[in-house]
Amino acid sequence: MIVGVGIDRVLLHRVDQIYERWGKRFTERVLGQQEHLVFQERLGRGSAGRSRAVSYLAKRFAAKEAVGKALGVGLAYPMSLHSLEVLNDAKGAPHAVFHKALADWVSSRQPRVNVSLSDEQDAAVALAIVESNAGPQAPRNMRPKD
Q1: Are 9 and 125 in contact (CB under 8 A)?
Q2: Kindly report the CA angle at 119 between 102 and 80, in degrees rounded to 5?
Q3: What distance in Å separates the CA atoms of residue 43 and residue 19, rounded to the nearest whole number?
Q4: For residue 13, how many other CB atoms are within 10 A of its CB?
Q5: Strand pairing partners for 112?
Q6: Is the Cβ–Cβ distance between 82 and 101 less than 8 Å?
Q7: pTM for this prediction
Q8: For 3-54, what is each residue's pLDDT tens digit?
């Protein structure tokens, strides 16, 4: 049963401007450790790499916003930019990896979090759908079972 849906759209030129101004300080604020490694790898591929790196950064920021919305917590405790990483599996599909207090919060509720990412020339978009494993009686706020 779907208990939450979140979507976010980020303009690539705005992310590029912020990255141009703040550089590593911005990426360290937004990206987790594994995400940062992928970002650096893409950045190291020349001028085309910078474009791909900025797109990657924008998609991750949008994904974190979308997941926060779908979970019903936004970017407030237990959610933070570093408590969620959106990584790709071996086939390239994005999946959410939770850390810190958010990992405990998600573990106690056992939702299934689905993430989809896309980008075009001007924007990155993320969609998150949260499903409950508790069945049709599950409350929208996914309170843990007593």
Answers
A1: yes
A2: 15
A3: 12
A4: 13
A5: 131
A6: no
A7: 0.87
A8: 999 999 999 999 999 999 999 999 999 999 999 999 999 988 877 788 999 9
